[in-house]
Amino acid sequence: VSLQMMKHAWDNYKRYAWGLNELKPISKQGHSSNLFGNIQGATIVDALDTLYIMEMKEEFKEAKEWVEKNLDFNVNAEISVFEVNIRFVGGLLSAYYLSGEEVFRKKAVELGEKLLPAFNTPTGIPWALLNIKSGIGRNWPWASGGSSILAEFGTLHLEFVHLSHLSGNPVFAEKVMNIRKVLNRLDKPEGLYPNYLNPSSGQWGQHHVSIGGLGDSFYEYLLKAWLMTDKTDEEGKKMYYDAVQAIETHLIRKSSGGLTYIAEWKGGLLEHKMGHLTCFAGGMFALGADGAPNDRTGHHIELGAEIARTCHESYDRTSMKLGPEAFRFDGGVEAIATRQNEKYYILRPEVIETYMYMWRLTHDPKYRQWGWEAVEALEKHCRVDGGYSGIRDVYNNHESHDDVQQSFFLSETLKYLYLLFSEDDLLPFEHWVFNTEAHPLPVLHKDNGNKEDDQK
Ligand code: DMJ
Questions:
Q1: Residue 451: pLDDT band by 50, 70, 90 thresholds?
Q2: pLDDT digits (tens, 9 = 90+) for 85-110
Q3: Residues 300, 304, 309, 314: is their CA dihedral positive or negative?
Q4: 1-442, which class in CATH?
Q5: 3-state class of 368 per DSSP?
Q6: If you placed Cys at 133, which of 76, 190, 233, 235 could pair as Cys (CB 3.0 to 4.6 Å)?
Q7: Closest ligand 1 atom to the C-alpha of 83?
Q8: Catalytic center at which residues (predicted)?
């Protein structure tokens, strides 16, 4: 089924928005987000590995030809370093490792080089935004005191280690190892990492902590850095398990109805709200269970299972059976969005991602059932003639479509669905880690740095 869904999403993108970043499936035209500046083709690059894995050979070939002829980074535009890294660099790296086609390696390294000026700050903590022609960087104007964002500068590690591995140029890995060094020197309030860090002073901004937006994938990349180095990156491992310990103590709570959730922390006060983005953490806890210190393996799996259950409830308690952007545990509600501007669903993957990890790690059939419920809801409410669209209010009985087919729907949501219903030996966890955009990167085995060639 996810293959049919992919075909529908891809065919319509091809028909109405080919070469542009994303598709507007209702108005049937291209959609350009300013996150990618003038770089084009986000959907193509994000979808390459999904096409490959689903064996959509014709489509993969067309996509590859487009990359060869048209993917151009010589543009005078300001881009988001994080978004371009996870979608474009990550997408190209996976396409290379899966297919062995040199063009993807070349483009990934070329783009990585374009991102390097972002690290020209007093601390080496990169800017959020970069003009890839002039090399001038800056931060989001809304970020606390000119800060860079934890989830942005903390989500370059996996891709940059691979860029060094593939190019033979150590500079990429050096840049991300330096980020670690800066973080390790800093005092952490209650052992927690604030979402904001000023790249000039090297000091934290506001003490806001989140495992959802602004924080999320920083934690994911600590764990995966350790896994991706064949469990040799002991520093990444320690940082991950220490962070999880602090998160458990200060952020994880149980509602009176028995639902475990991860709250947000604002200078010591809890906001009892959990984002859709935060739901990825169920999968992360389960994936990290194996290495948990002090016989806590079972506990981490259980934590993953509880987060999965809570996130499933956030879907189940809507009329469309698709989860809202954020849900609350206060004012008498549990796992329900109370604010109008938190009721939307934009085809995000995190809940399905967690089902996929929980399925692989426990084989409890309920995760496939829950994934199937999501498929039915997507087909019923998000599928339109011209592709798939997000929804403005999942509590309404009537769809109001937002008219965007996000590129991560093809790279993540559909890939995780496909993996959820595939055998475990398709991209097995011993050999692959997924970047935060679901692009698989091979584990760099200690005995043989090129072991990934055996995994094709
Ligand atoms: C994706 O780009 C990535 O999963 C990122 O880590 C968070 N946001 C979107 C999907 O929701």
A1: very low
A2: 999 999 999 999 999 999 999 999 99
A3: positive
A4: mainly alpha
A5: helix
A6: 76
A7: 2
A8: 83 (proton donor), 216, 325 (proton donor), 350
